[in-house]
Amino acid sequence: MRYQISGKQIDIGDALQTHVKSELDEVVAKYSQRPTDATVVFSRNAHEYVCEAVIHLSTGLSASAKAHAVEIYAAFDACREKLDKQLRRYKRRLKDHHLGRTEPVEFGAGSAYILAASEESEDTEPETLQPIIIAEMETKIPSLSVGEAVMQMELSESRLLVFRNEKHSGVNVVYRREDGNIGWIDPRNNG
């Protein structure tokens, strides 16, 4: 497994990197036998350490977690437990999807834009309907089934996921509704 372990304005020692690698190897070995990669970022927020981790599975799915603690090792251990819980919860579903999929998930390219926030009050009319683009980045859009998209959204703890539907190659969206249910937007479904 490939690792990218870094710290935002804090030094990450060799002992912590070794600990992270051994613990994540153990977690991933339980649920995935294929090579994967992981990104772990440590940072500091006031008196607490923050650990954010993302594990990319060979099936194309990703699991992510974030944890806070007063000590850096405790922050990582809490983050690892969250990842373990996510992967354990979806172990059966991951295996089922893995067996049905003969090739890894394909990713298409797309553009992602960050728009400037409106500084005007809600009562006033904006001067122009053209938003100001403050950043443009390339993003990856996975080609998944609807079930896999819902599982990916839940694994990554996102509020929504844009994906290319494997059935008809159209762009779809799954999202978490305020009532806790999952919504699915499929523009091709005219019924």
TrEMBL record:
Residues 130-183 form the Sigma 54 modulation/S30EA ribosomal protein C-terminal domain. Keywords: Cytoplasm, Translation regulation. It is found in: Cytoplasm. The keyword Nuclease does not apply. Pfam families: Ribosom_S30AE_C (PF16321), Ribosomal_S30AE (PF02482). Its main location: cytoplasm. The keyword Cytoplasm applies. CDD domains: RaiA. SUPFAM superfamilies: Ribosome binding protein Y (YfiA homologue). Required for dimerization of active 70S ribosomes into 100S ribosomes in stationary phase; 100S ribosomes are translationally inactive and sometimes present during exponential growth. Associates exclusively with 100S ribosomes, which are dimers of 70S ribosomes. Interacts with 100S ribosomes. Belongs to the HPF/YfiA ribosome-associated protein family. Long HPF subfamily. HAMAP family: HPF. This is Ribosome hibernation promoting factor. It comes from Acidimangrovimonas pyrenivorans.
